[in-house]
Amino acid sequence: MSKVNIVRFASKHGDGFYDTLKKNIDTFFKENNISPSGNASLRWKTVAMCALFFVPYIIIVTGLAASSVYLFFGMWALVGFGMIGVGCGVHHDSNHGSYSDNKTVNKVVGDIVNVVGGYDVTWRIQHNILHHTYTNIEGLDEDIDAGGLLRFSPNSKKHVLHRFQHIYGWFLYCLLTIQWVTYKDYRLLFIYEKKGLLKKEKISLNKALLELSIYKVIYFTYILVLPILYSGMPWQYVVAGFLLLHAIAGLGLSCIFQLAHVLESSEYPMPTDDRKMENSWAIHQMLNTANFSPRSKWMHWFVGGLNYQVEHHLFPHISHVHYPQISKIVRSTAEQYGVPYKVMPTFVNALGQHYKMLKKLGQE
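Structure tokens predicted for Acyl-CoA desaturase:
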């Protein structure tokens, strides 16, 4: 595997949209005398999301849930929802550097992804570098590469099995985080080493493998070994609870991220033979990203503002706590320049649109 075959976007100065938008956003923060980083509400959310993950776990491992099978599995389910909350509402901002103005705080809080089974190095490369830069571009955005089992792009190869992906795809989504905590991070490290991407994180392959292995040992020790030893429930129940937590987390995280991009409204442009894109990076993001459920304060709180994916893709360095406010500026500026601003009214509507796209990509 060779180095990343990057593409070049058209100059942003050709449309004026992004320059004007950045100026408007900067003015908003200056006039209101607020920082683009997180605030007290984000710190309280951090406590809440970590509690949602760790409190049920403590109840499990101390044997307090052993009196009832329903209580036992209910606690595992809450851990799964806590993993979604920690992933979307805490470490996501941190690993984009928007949680705090302090880089050390961002690093420390961002490392929570290592505690819940992931790895911050591979996350930043796959998400921050590849997905955010090359959104929906076949061969570069790994979020639309499902290894052949699912077809997320009209530019990827189609197999007979894909005719049914709108049915079986939801079950594969449940396996997302199981992949993360087992083999995927290891596979990605070797891929990113060959592509020269580990250098961007200033880490060698050997050091990354050592770090990752230590994190995995710690994770599986506390999430499986300790509950088997001390929960007071049969080991089979513990393994079943572990699988339940990851089915919930995998399905939830998959839906949250895929609803923004794998839609009929996305354009999936491809570069020319000389690796040039027709549009500027900002226009490209607007054409391939959509919001959902913007009026739901609960949705915004729980998914860490990822229902405002348009704002997040344009300004990942701004904390999600500000997205509802700046979305008004993004929308009005887009209207001013005739740029599409895509939004779906509810989460259910977004699920329906994603279902239609899965079916279309599988049967077209």
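The chain has a mean pLDDT of 94.
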